[in-house]
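REQUEST FORM: STRUCTURE PREDICTION
Request ID: SP-0412
Submitted by: Lab K.M.
Chain count: 1
Length (residues): 501
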Amino acid sequence: MTTTTAIERAEHLKAALKARPQRLLIGGEWVDALSGRTFETVNPATGEVLAHVAHGAAADVDLAVRAARKALSDPAWSRMTAVDRSRVLLRLADLVERDAENLAVLECLDNGKPATLTRAVEVEGTIRTFRYFAGWPTKFGGETLPVSPRSGAQILNYTTREPVGVAGLIVPWNYPLSMAAWKVAPALAAGCAVVLKPAEQTPLTALRLGELALEAGVPPGVFNIITGFGDAGAALVEHDGVDKVAFTGSTAVGKAIVRASAGNLKKVSLELGGKSPQIVFPDADLKAAAASIAQGIFFNQGQTCTAGSRLYVHKSRADELLDAIAGAAARLKIGDGLRPDVDFGPLISQEQWDRVNHYVEVGSTEGAKLAAGGRRPPALDKGFFFEPTIFVDAAPTMRIVREEIFGPVLAALTWSDLDDLVAQANDSEYGLSAGIWTNDIKAAHRTAAAIKAGTVWVNCFNMIDPASPFGGFRQSGWGREHGRQAMELYSETKSVWVNLS
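STATUS: Completed
RESULT:
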C-alpha cells in the first residue's frame, strides 16, 4: 500500500464518513439511536473527528436483543442447512477480502496502528477466521454413545449440538475488526444470533462488517450492532434475552460482567488481561530473541493482551540482549500509520497516553532505570504518540512488573536460578501467555510445563491461528477462543434417550 494510495483512500473514506452519521444495525435495518444522540470517534494520530456515531443505550439494546431472538426462530436462519451456513460465512470472508484495502485504512484511521499492519494482521486475520469457521457447520455435531442402562433394555442414546441462543459480543479497541471476527464467526457458525457491541473508541470497522454481513446473506436480525459506551455494554450483559456473553477487555470489567450476568445465569466467556513473561536462557539465539521480544512488546504500541512486558534474561546475557532490544526499538519508525514506512503508531487516546506516562513515572520512582524512551517523541506534537520504553534493573515487587500497563513499556529483570525464575514468572494474577527462548529442548519443555499460562511460545512469540485454542489461566479469563473450543462456547449439548425395547 503506497503513501499515495493510503492517503487517497483515507481522504475518500473520511469524506464518506462525514457525509452521514454511522447508525445502529437492528433487525437488518440501519437506524438512529432512539435518543437521537451521537458521539464522535477520532483519529488518534491527529485528533481529527472521523465520524458521528449513534449513541446506543439500554432501549436500543433491548430492540436489538428482541430482533435477535426473533431471528432465532425465523426459518431463514433456524432451518438453514449447515452447507448454506458455511456458504454465507465464506461469502462474508470473500467480501472482507474484496474490501481489504479500504478496511485496512479505515482501521488505521480509527485505531492508529499502521495501515500496512492492519492489512497484514487485522484484515488478513479476519478473512482467515471466517474461512476457518465456515468449515465447522458441516462438522460440528453430536455422537452416538454406548450407554449401559438396566439389564435387558435396548436404548439408543445420542447427543446433538444446538446453538446457545442470543450471544452478546463485546469487543475491545486494540484489535477492533479481528476481535469482532473471533466472536462473530464461531457464533454464526454454531447457529446463534448475535448483538455486537464494539468499543466506543473504534466502532467503524465493526459497522462496515455489519454491512458486509447483510451483503453476504446473513438474514435480518441474526447480526445486530449497538455502538455506544459502557452503559450499553452493561445493558447487553444484564438483558435476560441474552443467553451468552463473550467479552474481551480488562480483568476489572470482566469481573463486573460475571456479577451482572447472574440474573438469568447466562453463559460467560472472558479473554482478559495479561502480564506475559519473556524468559531467555543463556544458550538462546539472542539475535532472534531480541527481534521477537521487541516485536512482542512494541507491536500495536504495546496495546496487546499478550504483550511480553516482563523480560527475564539470564544475567550472563543481559547486557547483550538489552542492547539489541534497545537497538530494535530505536529503529522503529514512529508516525501516522498512513505512511508505508511507519511501523509504530499512536496510543488509542489521551486517557491511554496518560496511563502509560503515569506508569513510566511510577517505574522511575520505584527505582527502575529508564534505558530507552519514556516520553512523547519530540517531533510529534499532535496525536497520542509515546516512545518505545525500556526499564532495566526492575524488581519483582515493582508495579511496572506486576500490573498491566497496556502500552509500549518493557520491564527487564535478570535471573540465575531456574526454580526462582519459574516462581517469579508465575508470581502474577494473570496467566495469558509466555515466551521461552532456548536451544535446549529439554529445558524448553520443562519450563513450558511449569509456566501457568494458556499459551506458551518457544523460540517465537504471538503466533495465533484460528485452529489453535487461545485464552488464559487465572484472572486472564474463562474459556478459549478459536478451534473447536470456540464452537463449544456458542452451543449446548442435548442428550436424547430412545427406548427400543
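NOTES: The mean pLDDT is 96.
Reviewed by: T.R.
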